[in-house]
Every structure is written in structure tokens, then in C-alpha cells.
Amino acid sequence: MQKAERLSAEATATLRALLAGADPVSSALLAQVPHTRVVGRCGCGCATVDLRVDRTAADPAPPHGNPAVDAWYRAPHAAGVMVCTEDGYLSLLEIYSVSDEPVTAWPDPRFLER
């Protein structure tokens, strides 16, 4: 495991866009974002990050399915994105490409479609 680091501005913007909503799960997960650090990366070179939340600083989300949220980018890449959790805490922000090439940077969240 690598040293924990801050979420990039792009990953933070992506999480905030994906978790925008008034439902209790999205609200709880959104409240975790400021207390979330990157603790790992995908080996393929894509922008996917493993996450760890300071559990002393944020409450878990109510029970929910996994992925907690998923969406799609049609532009500039045809790619899916999802937020996964473990025990009610953010654990993964994943992006996967439909092509053979990994998406190496987070696209503008304005292009997200749910």
C-alpha cells in the first residue's frame, strides 16, 4: 500500500458530481469526501483510485447496494464510472473504458450521465 495522499481536484469534483442528491446515502458519502484519502491506484494506468476515509471524522452511510453510484461518460471517452463502499465508507472511485485504452485522467464531471 502506498502512502495516503489527498484526492486530486478532478477526483474530488467527480465524487461530488456523482454524490449530488438528497438521498441519505449520497448525503452521507458526500460528507465523507473531505476526510477521504487515496491509498492505492489501479495497475493498468487508469485514473481509478482506492480510497480510505478517516472513520473518526465521518459517519458511515446507511445500508445500500454496491456500487453505491454509477454513471457514464459519452464524451470525451466512452467510459463508466462508479463509487464503491465498504462498511458504509467510500472505498473505490473507478473509471473503466469501453475501448482498449485506459482513461488516465478524470473527465470533466459535466459530461457525466446517470
Task: Please sum up the structure shown.
This protein is α+β, with helices and mostly antiparallel strands. It has two helices and seven strands; from the N terminus they run βααββββββ. The longest helix has 10 residues.
Describe it.
- By secondary structure, the protein is of the alpha+beta class.
- It has two helices and seven strands, in the order βααββββββ.
- It has a seven-stranded antiparallel β-sheet, with helices on one face.
- The longest helix is centred in the N-terminal third of the chain and has 10 residues, at 9-18.
- The chain is globular, with a radius of gyration of 13 Å.
- The model has no long low-confidence stretch (mean pLDDT 94).
Q: Evaluate the radius of gyration.
A: 13 Å
- Tally of contiguous helical segments: 2
Poorly predicted runs of 5 or more residues: none
**Sheet with most strands:** 7 strands, antiparallel
What spatial order of strands do you see in the largest sheet?
1-2-3-6-5-4-7
Helix content: 10-25%
| Multimeric status of the protein | single chain
Number of strands: 7
Can you tell me the overall shape?
Answer: globular
Approximate strand percentage: 25-35%
Overall mean confidence score, pLDDT: 94
Order of helices and strands: EHHEEEEEE
Judged by helices, strands and strand pairing, the structural class is alpha+beta
Distance from N terminus to C terminus (CA atoms, Å) equals: 32 Å
